[in-house]
Specification:
The protein is mainly beta. It contains 6 helices and 36 strands.
């Protein structure tokens, strides 16, 4: 529609609205003027209320139960208060903040967002006076399932002249994503497609599957063209690792982030604007500016688990524990840039950062435990069935931002932004429960701490021009992307294993029958030294503890920029097709004390860290250059763009197929 027709259409619409408004007023005015005013409601009837119950208090009648002293150890529920009530053991206060070693990455806030990982926690480890006649409740159990998903389709098509992109295939960016998803499927060993367990029995089966997966991870994935792939196992999987290499300190994310377009502008750049306080006008400097990148995909998770702790554990069955971190980066940054454009952006980067720490936390540190007195009494609480503690978090960001921008010289100042999308998933859990002196598990123990992280994005930009003279030049940025995976698993309190001793076995068998089967001799165990009253938790089933975090970022930002210089060069310009960020951050903290575990069955305790990357990235100095002639550039593009292949590979990663234009065809344009 031309400008004249558009103005006529606006005039006709305004006339119709005015006419309808006058017609409605003809009907409304008589009704409004002649209407009755609302009358107040009549008073509500009030009926009396008779109270027949008496409020006289009955005399206090205490129930005094006297138990004569006994020289035999009996269950605490029927015995006198033992003295001494607590050992003379000084216990330090432990503060958890963002600056302690427990949080190896969070020294400064992330970006400009103030996402606190955890509020400041004070955990006081101390023995308190525990009256023997009080009963203790079984520990609480928890199951948390969080699934966060963001999907953004922002395919912008801008033509300053009609027909600038006739014959182009606007869906070609998704073809590259399909290829990268296929590569990720070969590179990522996680092929289980794990879902939240639907039953308690499924938790143990899932931990067994994770153990099998970790054991089968290979440093050389079959069929995958990885630039690097490393596996660290067992005792070697302690410390900080960056792309498979052990480092003294993990890198800080803020030191690797590209300079944001919305950061403080440099002196003399087109981003600097002028505001006149007298007139209130905001004046942009003359020039041409395009921002088609700047997308940020962020997944962030923090879990602090202190649900159930004890310095001693007896297990009649098997003990299985696994820590697993899997990180992959799949990045494609192939740019086709015509001569006359100078790319000033740094090379795109990708990093996998993993930290696994085990920090000692001995409640008897500096004290000879053997010199402390043995318990004079005990309390037992029984949990029928299984003990369950599940944290399941899955976060996914899927963003398509394949823009087509065709521009000509227009106006004094032109600013176009078609990118700068933001997708954020954030979850923070702080779980604090109970502590016991001894946990007896009559079944098996299944523990797993798992973090899966992957970044997959394509930034294959194409820039060309249609110039009669071909003597103009432009500066642009088409790289400077960042893919970042950061994961940490921290155990506050180490674990030592030993076969189930005869004394421990007798104690575990005795608690099956109840407190009355505990004898004085059973409490004379050196492992119980220092506990005035021994608090015992008996789990009749299995001990099930699963912490699972899965984070994925999928981004396609393959932009196409055509500059038509038929009306002259654009003048001063700034073009940014880059500065995309795909970031995953996950932290699991298991807070407890040093624990000695005696196992009657088999013990499997393993840790594995897998880091791999596929980087198909061009150096801006060596980027391919298109021919100067615009017609040949269009032919070069058309060879690939005119293909219409509706089939796409069935990738195993969660994604959506884009088969229609985006609703937001043009995000923002000021000219």
């Amino acid at each position: 529609m031309d400008l004249t027709s558009e103005e006529i259409a606006h005039f006709i619409g305004l006339f119709a609205l005015t006419d309808d408004s006058m017609r409605e007023r003809i009907s409304y005015d008589p009704f409004h003027l002649n209407g009755r005013r609302a009358e107040p409601d009549a008073e509500l009837p009030l009926e009396g209320v008779e109270i027949a119950d008496s409020f006289e208090l009955t005399p206090f009648r205490p129930n005094i139960v006297y138990n004569p002293p006994s020289f035999q150890i009996v269950p605490a529920a029927a015995g006198p208060i033992p003295i001494p009530m607590s050992p003379d053991v000084p216990m330090p206060d432990v503060w958890l903040t963002q600056n302690t070693s427990v949080f190896p990455f969070y020294g400064t806030p992330y970006f400009e967002f103030d996402f606190p990982l955890f509020q400041q926690l004070r955990i006081v480890l101390e023995f308190t006076v525990k009256p023997a006649f009080l009963e203790i409740e079984p520990p609480g159990q928890i199951a948390v399932v969080i699934h966060q998903y963001n999907s953004i389709s922002d395919i912008d098509i801008i033509e300053f002249k009609d027909g600038m992109f006739d014959g182009m295939d606007f869906g070609r960016g998704s073809e590259r994503i399909d290829e990268l998803l296929t590569t990720a499927g070969r590179l990522d060993p996680n092929d289980l497609e794990l879902l939240p367990p639907g039953s308690e029995a499924a938790i143990a089966d899932m931990v067994a599957e994770i153990v099998e997966l970790a054991a089968g991870i290979d440093a050389e994935p079959s069929g995958a063209d990885a630039d690097y792939a490393f596996v660290i196992r067992g005792e070697s999987a302690v410390g900080a690792f960056v792309d498979g290499k052990l480092v003294d300190l993990p890198p800080v994310l803020s030191e690797f982030q590209p300079r944001r377009h919305d950061a403080e502008p440099e002196e003399g750049s087109l981003e600097q604007s002028h505001f006149d306080p007298e007139t209130g006008e905001h004046q942009q400097q003359a020039g041409f500016e395009v921002v088609a990148g700047g997308n940020r995909l962020i997944n962030e998770t923090g879990i602090l688990d202190a649900m159930l702790t004890s310095p001693l554990m007896y297990v009649l069955g098997n003990y299985t524990s696994i820590d697993l971190i899997v990180q992959t980066n799949i990045v494609s940054d192939h740019d086709a840039i015509e001569a006359g454009f100078t790319n000033h952006s740094p090379v795109s980067e990708a990093y996998n950062v993993a930290v696994r720490l085990i920090e000692a936390n001995d409640p008897f540190e500096g004290i000879d435990q053997s010199s402390l007195s043995l318990p004079a009494n005990f309390r037992i609480t029984t949990l029928g069935g299984n003990y369950v503690n599940i944290d399941w978090i899955k976060q996914t960001n899927y963003v398509i931002d394949d823009d087509w921008i065709g521009v000509t010289r227009s106006g004094t100042s032109t600013f176009i932004t078609t990118g700068e999308n933001l997708a954020v998933n954030a979850s923070y859990l702080t779980e604090i429960g109970m502590s016991f002196d001894l946990i007896v598990v009559l079944g098996d123990v299944w523990k797993a701490n798992v973090i899966f992280q992957s970044n997959i994005f394509a930034d294959d930009d194409t820039v060309w021009r249609d110039s009669p003279l071909g003597n103009s030049s432009y500066d642009l940025e088409s790289g400077n992307n960042l893919a970042w995976n950061e994961a940490s698993i921290t155990h506050v309190g180490g674990t030592s294993f030993a076969p189930l001793s005869p004394e421990a076995k007798n104690f575990a068998e005795a608690v099956k029958g109840g407190p009355t089967y505990i004898t004085y001799e059973m409490l004379q165990n050196e492992n119980f030294a220092g506990f005035g009253t021994l608090d015992v938790l008996v789990i009749e089933g299995d001990y099930l503890d699963l912490t699972y975090v899965e984070q994925r970022n999928i981004l396609s930002d393959s932009d196409n920029l055509l500059i038509d210089e038929g009306d002259g060069p654009l003048g001063p310009n700034e073009i940014s097709l880059a500065q995309n960020e795909a970031i995953n951050i996950a932290s699991i903290i298991k807070y407890g004390v040093d624990q000695h575990v005696e196992v009657g069955g088999t013990v499997y305790s393993e840790a594995a860290i897998y880091q791999a990357g596929f980087l198909d990235v061009d150096d801006p100095d060596d980027a391919p250059v298109l021919d100067d002639l615009a017609s040949e550039a269009v032919v070069f593009l058309a060879d690939e763009m005119l293909k219409n292949d509706d089939t796409c590979a069935n990738d195993e990663l969660e994604r959506q197929v884009q088969d229609q234009d985006a609703d937001d065809l043009m995000q923002t344009m000021l000219a």
